[in-house]
Amino acid sequence: MSYGKKLLLLGLQCGALMIGALAIWIMVFSREETNRKVSREISDEWGGEVNIFGPLIYDETDSIPNVYPESLNCHIGVESKSLHRNIYEAEVYSAHVNISGSFSNVHAPSLSDSVIIKLDTEPEQILMISSLKLNGKDIAWKVTEGAIYAPVTAEDLSGNVVFSTEFDVRGSSSLSVKPIGKRSSITVEGSARNPSFGGGLLPADRMVSDNEFSAHWLKTLSNPDDVSGWIIVKFLVGVSSYQKVSRSMKYAFLIILLTFTSVLFTEIITKQTIPLTNYFLIGAALILFYSLLLSFSEHMSFGLSYFISAFMTVALITGYMWRMLRSAKVGLCMGAILTGLYGSCFILLSLATYALLLGSMILFVALAAMMYGSLHIRH
Questions:
Q1: pLDDT digits (tens, 9 = 90+) for 232-288
Q2: What is the Cβ-side half-sphere exposure of residue 367, based on CA atoms within 13 angstroms?
Q3: What gap in Å lies between CA 307 and CA 310, rounded to an integer?
C-alpha cells in the first residue's frame, strides 16, 4: 500500500476516533450537569445567597425606610467548606455578622408613634441573633414571615442613637451587604478556597492567600437616599474536574495526529509494515485515556488522576510497540514521545496565561522534528 493511500486511511481513522472522543465528551457534559443539579440541591438545603440590608428605621404604616444610618460598621467572619453527596460537592459557608453604627436626626416629622427598626435578611438563614442594643438598652428582635424587626419607642430614639447587633447566618454561592450608611465601613474575612469580589464596588484593601482572605470596603454617600448597589463576595468551587477533563479533550486530535505521525515515521525508518488495525488500536488507547481520566477524577484530585491515566496509556502503547516490532528501543522511544505529549498537555491545562504561547512552541518543535526526520528518511 502506498503511503499516500495509507495517509488517507489514517485520516479517516482519526475521524472515527474523534467520534469516540465526542461520545466521551457527551458523557463528561452529562455528569457535569448532574453535578450542578446535586450541588444546587445541597446548597438549597444548606441555605442560598445571603443578603444583609439594614438595620433601618421604618414607620410601621410605611414600607419605605424613613431613616438611614448615619454610620454603618459591618464585620463578617466567614468559614466556608465543601459538602459532599456521593461523588458530588457544593461550596457552602457559615458567617458571624457584627453590625454597629448610629442614627441621627431620627425625629423626622413623617414618623408616627409606631416605629420599628428592621433588618432585611431572610430569617430562615439566621441561626442565632442577639438582641438589638440601642444606646445600651437591649431590645429583642421579632421574626415574621420574611422579616426581622424590633419595635421601638420615641424614648428609644431620642437624640443620637448608637446601635449594635450580631447574628450567625449560613448560605452558599454569595454573601451580599448593602452599604446604607452615609459612611459605611464593611469588612469580610475568613477562609474560602476561591473568593471573588463584585457588586460594582471593589474593596479598598484586599488579601487573598491559599485558603484565607480579607477585604475591606469604604463608601460615603453624598445623597442619603442613594443606596444603590451591593457589596458582593462570591464563594466558588473553582474549576471542577469535569471542566478540566473537557479542556484536556481539546487536545485529543492533536495527540492522536502526532502519535500516528510518530508511528508512521517509525514504520518508514524500521521498514516494518504496521497494519492499519494496529494504528486503530493505538488510537483507541489514546481515546480511552479520557475515559480513565474522567473516572479517576471523580474520586481523587485531577493532577493524580491525570498522572495515573497517562501512565497507564503510555505503558500500554510502549509495551504494544515493543512487542509488535520486537524492539525495546522503538517501544521506549514511543513511550518518551507520548510522555512528552501528555506532559505538555498537562502544562497547557495548568497555565492559563501562557497556554497559547506554549502550545505554539510545542507545535513548532514537533513540526521541526518531523521535517528533519523526513530528511533522514530521504537519505
A1: 888 876 657 888 888 888 888 888 888 888 888 888 878 888 888 898 999 999 999
A2: 6
A3: 5
pLDDT digits (tens, 9 = 90+) for 172-224: 888 888 888 788 899 999 988 788 887 777 888 888 887 889 999 988 876 65
How far apart are the C-alpha atoms of 282 and 266, rounded to whole Å?
14
Residue 93: closest CA among 105, 79, 113, 104: 79
C-alpha cell read off for 166: 450580631
CA angle 239, 245, 246 (to 5 degrees): 90
Residues with Cβ within 8 Å of 154's Cβ and at least 6 positions away in sequence, in order, are 107, 113, 115
Residues 6+ apart with CB under 8 A from 372: none
Could you tell me what percent of the chain has a pLDDT over 90? Answer: 15
Burial of 14 (0-12, 13-18, 19+ CB in 10 A): middle
pLDDT value, residue 108: 47
Determine contact, residues 161/102, Cβ cutoff 8 Å. Answer: yes
The SS3 of residue 137 is strand
Q: Model confidence at 353, in pLDDT bands (50, 70, 90)?
A: low
Indicate if the pLDDT at residue 378 is higher than 80.
Answer: no
Look at residue 169 and give its three-state secondary structure.
Answer: strand
- Residue of 121, 65, 101, 77 whose CA lies nearest to 184: 101
- Distance CA(276)–CA(2), nearest Å, equals 13
Is-contact 177 168, C-beta < 8 A?
Answer: no
∠ CA 164-168-174, nearest 5°, is 110
Q: What single DSSP character describes residue 136?
A: T
- At residue 13's C-alpha, the angle toward residues 8 and 14, to 5°, is 95
Compute CA distances 323 → 34, 106, 146, 287, 317, whole Å.
Answer: 42, 89, 72, 21, 10
- Report the alpha-carbon distance of residue 99 to residue 329 in Å, rounded: 71
Distant-in-sequence contacts of 245-249, Cβ < 8 A, 24+ apart: 245/28, 245/290, 245/293, 245/294, 245/297, 245/302, 246/25, 246/28, 246/29, 246/32, 247/349, 248/290, 248/293, 248/306, 248/345, 248/349, 249/21, 249/24, 249/25, 249/28, 249/290
> In terms of Cα–Cα distance, which of 96, 90, 169, 95 is closest to 126?
169
